Amino acid sequence: MPDTLNATKQTPGQEAGGTDPVGPFRGVILDWGGVMTNPIRDMVAAWLDDEDVDHEHYAAAIRPWVAGAYAQNGEANPIHALERGECTVEEFERWLASRIARRNGVQVLAEGLLTRMFAGSTMALPMQAAVQVIRTAGLRTALLSNSWGMADYPRDLFPGMFDVVVISGEVGMRKPEERIFRHAAGLLGLESAECVFIDDIDVNVSAAEAIGMTAILHRDPPTTLARLGELLGLSLSG
Predict the structure, then answer these.
(1) What is the CATH number of domain 27-38+123-232?
(2) pTM for the predicted model, two decimal places
(3) Which residues, at least 6 apart from 169, have a Cβ–Cβ distance to it below 8 Å?
(4) Which of 22, 109, 166, 229 has a beta carbon 3.0–4.6 Å from 236's, enabling a disulfide?
């Protein structure tokens, strides 16, 4: 599948019906899960409860993978493979299912595990509205997402939201690798310093800052949009 969705043919920094952006920033790059959606921890917690899996048992099982995935010199593990597209969703689901069980001891079903895990995903409407304001103001937007499976993104919405879409499993790179940030900025036709990056994982934020982007660690839409509005000189809080 292609790694970009070009919604417009305007020159970088301009949007149909918009105006020239004011200030040093010409683009905004956003994470998907946990930024454009409700928090991932809420989705996972709902899935654990629905399948009667002990939260602490799940955390203990997956913690070493997560720690390695975001440690500076962490060893490669199934999360790296999944997010870079080096293994299939089905392979990852089998690996994860083998490590967890329901409270009654019954094995968690591997087939469709990730779909069930993220079934509680809902759009963060204030973030969606802000993206529209940003594009109307003449800035370019990009999605930069580490993928845990690629089938569940609402791709029909993307042309109206993003000039560029970069999904890790489609490009063979993942955050916090420097090259994927440069790749996203390059597809926008922008320098790193011209981009604001938003993510809910602090390691990814630090990686973006290391190559010259201005980054925001997302905790909730009101806080993020207040800070982003200050940077862009736009009213994004509704």
Answers:
(1) 3.40.50.1000
(2) 0.87
(3) 82, 83, 84, 85, 147, 149, 150
(4) 229
